[in-house]
Amino acid sequence: MDFWAKTNPRETIQQHTDKLLENIYILKKMNYIKDYKWELLEYAAIYHDMGKMNEKFQLKVSPDGRNVEDNKNNPHSEQEIPHAYLSSAMVPLDYLMDKFDNIEIKILINAIIFHHDRNFDFNEKNSEDRNYIQKELDDIKKKTTKFNYKTIWNDKFEFPYEHYSSSGISRDSLKKFKDKAAYYYRTHILTKGLLHKADYAASAGEMIEYQADFLENSMEIYKNQVLKIKEWNNLQKFMISNRSHNVIAVAQTGYGKTEAGLLWIGDTKGFFTLPIKVAINDIYTRITKTIVTEKKEERVGLAHSDSMDEYIKHSYSDKEKELIEFEGLERYYSRTRLMSLPLTLSTLDQLFLFVFAYRGYELKLAVLSYSKIVIDEIQMYSAELIAYLIIGLGMINNLGGKFAILTATFPPLIEDLLKKECVDYIRSEDYINCEETRHSIKVIEDNINAEIILKKVLTFNKILVICNTIRTAQELYDCIKSCIEEEEQSLEINLLHSGFIKKDRRKKEEHILKSGKRTEINKKEIWIGTQVLEASLDIDFDFLITELSDINGFFQRLGRVYRKRPIEENIDYNCYLYTGKKMYDIRGVGSVIDPDIFKKSREKLLKIDGRLNEKKKLEIINDTYTYTNLKNTRYIKDIEDNIEYIKSNFENFLKESEAKKQFRNILSYNIIPLNIYEKNKDKIKKLIETIKNHKKSLYERTEARTELNDFTLSINASRYRKNFSVEYLAITKYEMVLIYDCEYNYEKGFSQKLPSDEVKEEESKFF
């Protein structure tokens, strides 16, 4: 007799369980995980769905789709017992007592019970609840004689109350076992996490992991045929030599940190993280075009909120412009979400969400426990994200995973925080060229202004201007553009910040990447932007004019000019840094910029005039960003408060969606500017109709969603004004987009329609 597990695709319990066991065998054979009792996972897989034999579930998924008729007098008639609870009662405890100790069995039982996040109003101490469960189990027991799956059966069919914990297994609950606490916690994470992973992979018809056996050879080919060099540099050799260790390495911009990270990962499972999506997309393109050029759909993934959009963009043939079969594209996206690919490029929130210990967090942590994680540009993260990163790296390290921090500047306080979490690592020498100087800085105690920008463009061709707020950037743009038009100059000026709709921002990002490649070195251009230009963008401008945010941010901005070339002897300065006459003259200080760090940065940088080599930059960072120097600042307090908050969290309390909101620490609104909506109203409505229409193919609905997203931008809740919301467009039952009355155009992007008394408050809320 067949017992059904799923309806789409239709699959029996036996078929589904066979797929899980096959995936577990694949993972076990890869030998990523050592010192683990694989039988725990195998038994969890065998029994996890057995409870689906209950009558209510079988009627629900039966081929003829019959409804379940319940006895209305039964207090539980409207509540189906989650199958996982019933499954746990079928585990042959007496038999397993000879194989595992009591805590291992408790881990097994709870992995089965909580392999789905289901609400079940069940009190194990309530006799009525216990009787109801037992009745269901007695009914299932009668059917097992017709079940053909060859395994060990439990004749008792009783719910394992002595091994059940309503809140699941947690770190705190295991601490009492002292010397064995770490072993039990790792066993719990692997058993429950890998059960989730095997279950999801089987349901998606995917492999649990793809073999990581190509990167070392691919890098060697890349070295010989693309870079055309005889050997790797010292940083890259260091990373190869220390593949089995946690590593921290500091190297100047242009030293090959991306290649170093890939060489350190080698032929094992790895993740490469960066703060900004455009930088991740750029590296993904580089890797798939020049390093991993074959079978990318089984080797390299892209994990951020717009991954599918990027996959669709990359799925066109450069020559034929034909889209690959969408089913293959969907499977590629599925592999990425399942964390099944050998190499994944990711934003931090896609990996480190597990620190909130939300329900089901064990999957991500289990995968990272046998992976290598490269953290690039760590200095760009906020205090909150630094806290999550410190806690996360400590947890990954304790479970067997490895990390490498590769960065151009490394605040020493992060080392202090890692040591507090008892994380071991190897610190390399600093890889810098002491003989080469790329930057010469003039510090100006004033506000940034348009006049100096226009003067500099007479001498230098490509000028990069970075402001702390969108408002300042837009004002400079208006002023410069007005001057250019009055003087009838032939000069290109562009603006880039986070307040553009997606399709406009994508065009501008592609434009600045092209401008910054130095293919048209004689073309005069001015690019004005905000913090988004600090990212690891491979651009190289001639002159930087910037406001001060902090030392880290400033040095990051410096990396966008004279990126890989020394400054010429005849150039006095290639950077003007504006600090304001007074501390709060610079917009953003006190809101988005920590005032204590700004003050210390300002004091340190006011002493500089002229050439600044890489060694001196690192000395300034090392002197400024120490724990001792910053211990009384809001920045350190925010880091320590968030670390303490994470440590005090109750496990299995939050839903994953709630954890995502907390991780990003923002409530944002997805909006379409009113003028964009009015211009594209018919198209937008048709796109929403297509998304809602389940008769349309998945490809058509996905492409429609991608097109709809192109008209949107995200604004922080602090910027949202309810009275400017013109219309709410429902996309799904839980998702909508707002039509928002604001100023918007391709040149300048988003700006709020505000009364004059609100302008001052508004200007510091948005980078």
From TrEMBL:
The keyword Aminoacyl-tRNA synthetase does not apply. GO terms for cellular component: cytosol. InterPro entries: Cas3-like_dom (IPR054712), CRISPR-assoc_Cas3_HD (IPR006483), CRISPR-assoc_Cas3_HD_sf (IPR038257), DEAD/DEAH_box_helicase_dom (IPR011545), DEAD_box_RNA_helicase (IPR050079), Helicase_ATP-bd (IPR014001), Helicase_Cas3_CRISPR-ass_core (IPR006474), P-loop_NTPase (IPR027417). It comes from the Bacteria. This is HD Cas3-type domain-containing protein. GO terms for molecular function: ATP binding; hydrolase activity; metal ion binding; nuclease activity; nucleic acid binding; RNA helicase activity. It holds the Pfam family Cas3-like_C_2. It comes from Johnsonella ignava ATCC 51276. Residues 6-201 form the HD Cas3-type domain. In the N-terminal section; belongs to the CRISPR-associated nuclease Cas3-HD family. In the central section; belongs to the CRISPR-associated helicase Cas3 family. GO terms for biological process: defense response to virus. Keywords: Antiviral defense, ATP-binding, Helicase, Hydrolase, Metal-binding, Nuclease, Nucleotide-binding. CDD domains: Cas3''_I.
